[in-house]
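Just scan this pair:

***
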Amino acid sequence: MWGDGDFSLWQRRRVGQLDDREILSADETKIHGEAFDAPAAHGCWYMAACRIGFDIGSTTIKAVVADESDHIVYSRYRRHRSDVRGELLALFEELAADNPDLAAPICLTGSAGLGAAQALSLPFAQEVIAATKAVNRLIPEADVVIELGGEDAKITFMKPVVSQRMNGTCAGGTGAFIDQMASLLTTDAQGLDALARGHGALYTIASRCGVFAKSDLQPLLNEGAAHEDLAASVLQAVVNQTIAGLACGQPITGTVVFLGGPLHYLPALRAAFERTLAGKADRFVTPAHAEVFVALGAALSAEGPAVPVVDLPRRLRAARALDPAIPRLPVLFASEADRAGFAARHARNR
């Protein structure tokens, strides 16, 4: 699996450990393998100029602090492994420890962000709106955005009007699918990526469902197919699923932007998209912080009063649930005495 990621220029700049050249290289963006320099990040010298965004997704939590020039001065990327509350609390505590004086407007987004926003009394931005805002602000030439997450995949056509397509209830062709296929090859997602770079052939593998994909992959493993070829075939299956399943025949042309953790951490996956779209798309753009780009969009959407980051852990501890809109069954036993009474009644009837 791809690892947790950190990007923290702020503290180092505050103690004079960064010069402008370091900041430029940390903020560079890749286009067709060539780097161009984004303007240098300046840090949030005025706390009111900063904005904070959190993207709470199905498998990861991303945090971004943006300065007055929309540059990322602090970011975190964490897998929550289904413990959203625990990982979010750890992230809040880390943010507060690293930046104890920071107070800024905050906005949440992501598939698990709405419940968290309600529980914490913080604003929420729908993730497509947040991502579109960041793309329009920072990559205005974008024509198509391809975003892969832990359990979702999206294609957004930016022009002439914004039109977005997203996968349905199945996580086929997403980060979770890649993790599952990597485990069959006794590696992780980054190991799968490394294997794919040395491939010599491609096999047809279903990607709409992990069960179907395994039924294609297992016989090839039994026949001794090279792991490099199988790894590349898995990534190509993700590409095929994304384009065929989401584009639905609409041409993917012009400038194509890649976003999301899988496309940020897996260069071989980006290369598979570029091979497939060669001759159709004119240009491929992968922002330097593609894995937290939607969190940046949330930060750009943040409005309202500044919230001290040291207050966030307390708010989360006081919140009863992060998804209050979901109806819940009553607890089986309100106390240990209720449980003991239940056990005694059933013991008598044995």
